[in-house]
Amino acid sequence: YVPDDVRDPDPKNAYINTIEHIDTEVGRLLDTLDKLTLTEKTYGQEHILTATCLNDVATFVQAYGRFDEAEVLFERASKLQRKLLGDTHPHAIATLQNLVSLYGSKGDVQKKESMELLVQAMHAASAPPATIMPHPRAQPDEPHLRWSARRSNTP
Fold first, then answer.
1. What's the first-to-final CA gap in the chain, in angstroms?
2. Using CA atoms in the order 144, 147, 150, 155, what is the torsion angle rounded to 10 degrees?
3. Measured between alpha carbons, how far is 90 from 57 in angstroms, rounded to an integer?
C-alpha cells in the first residue's frame, strides 16, 4: 500500500516514491524491533516493561500484515503479563483482546472465538462480586437479615 501523498502520475517518479516509502517503512519496522531488543537487554526477559514492549511491537508488526510474527509476540506478552500481573489485570486482558483482533485479521475463526470466550471469562473474573440483596418482602427477623436490620436501626 502506498499513501495518496506518495503517488505520482509519472511512472518513474511513482516508482522512486514507492521505493522511498517502502524504505522508510522498513526502517520504522527495524527501529521498532531494535527497541524490543534494547528493552529485553535493559530490563530482562521477564519484566513488565518487556511485556508492554512486546505488545506494542506486535501491534506494529500486525499493521504490516506479518500476522505469524505478531502472534508470537502477542503470546509472549500475554504470558508475561498474566504471570507478572495476574490473569485478570486490565493489561493482560487487553493483550488477549489484541489476539482476538489478530485472529480475526488472519481469518482464524476458531481461535478468534475461543479467545473471545477467554476474554469474556477474564472480564467476568475481574468484576467485583455481586452484592446479594434481600427480597423486598423478607422479614427483618430472618437470620440472614439481622445484621443489616441492626445496622439500619430498624427493629
1. 74
2. 10
3. 19
CB atoms near residue 102 (< 10 Å): 24
If you search the block for the grid coordinates 516509502, which residue do you land on? 21
Q: For residue 63, what is its C-alpha cell?
A: 499493521
CA–CA separation, 82 vs 63, rounded Å?
A: 24
C-alpha cell at position 120: 469474556
Cell 443489616 belongs to which residue?
A: 148
Gyration radius from the chain CA atoms: 25
pTM: 0.66
Task: Give the number of other CB atoms < 10 A from CB of residue 78.
Answer: 25
pLDDT digits (tens, 9 = 90+) for 87-105: 999 999 999 999 999 999 9
> Which residues, 6+ apart, have CB-to-CB distance to 76 below 8 Å?
51, 54
